[in-house]
Amino acid sequence: MLALTPVITVSYEVKSAFMFLSVLELAVGILTNAFIFLVNFWDVVRRQPLSNCDLILLSLSLTRLFLHGLLFLDAIQLTYFQRMKDPLSLSYQTIIMLWMITNQAGLWLTTCLSLFYCSKIVHFSHAFLLCLANWVSRKAPQMLLGAMLFSSACTLLCLGDFFSRSGFAFTTVLLMNNTEFNSQIVKLNFYYSSIFCTLGSIPPFMFFLVSSGVLIISLGRHMRTMKANTKDSGDPSLEAHIKALISLISFLCLYVVSFCTALISVPLTMVWHNKIGVMICVGILAACPSIHAAILISGNAKLRRAVETILLWVQSSLKVRAGHRADLRTPDLC
Asked: Taking the CA of residue 274 as centre, how many other CA atoms within 13 Å lie in the half-sphere pointing to its CB?
């Protein structure tokens, strides 16, 4: 097995740099996801109907706000409280488990977004697929509710398994005086709980892959049709295809990066005891949701208009302030 030099403690400078990065990622994550949430929630306040896409984005942004809070708590716990050689504390394990559950809920919501894109963009010829696409397009709130119910059921199962294993590990630690054996028991219980929780991510990920694959095939057919008909490149359907694929493929890449990073962080924590490596993993995990939120904003016309409105308001406010200061510097001739 690959052996790394254990880095049980880190210097004050490394801790300060890591906390600065964590605060920065928290601020960016809250800014992007709170923007998506508030733009759509403002329509709810004004009693304007939300589209199915806006409803999914509203739920996804709320989930990611919670996700960023958990990652920041993880960073604080890792920096100031959790020592690598010590058994993983219950609070640290709980934060990681809640992150895994919240990340799974975000995956379900992104899968709903992918299915919705498929139903609105792809033109199906088979009767069953056409009926299914129409159902997804009309019943997006029910689909979203079903995803949340399934995610909630997985959450209860994961938490029940985690706390039952934690109770068993705590009882074993009380009965046994062997510190090394107790540490191994805690690690194994947490490892099996993590695997059990990861299994719940398989169904939404498979749905996401299938729907994204259908979009890619549909885009290829659409481009071949356009080339055969010698149409121009300004086809709205083509633009919708490309924007949806940019959003979904970017999420797929970021999710794979997050999954591999979380996978690498397990041996870094439990086997190699490398604190700097775990800090790097936490930093990567916190960056991925913010990047995808920024991509969602750039690909959504409603959110782009809101950004442009805010920028115009800021620009006009700066001009008014600059004009006011210029008036104050102008001497009074009267």
From this structure: 17
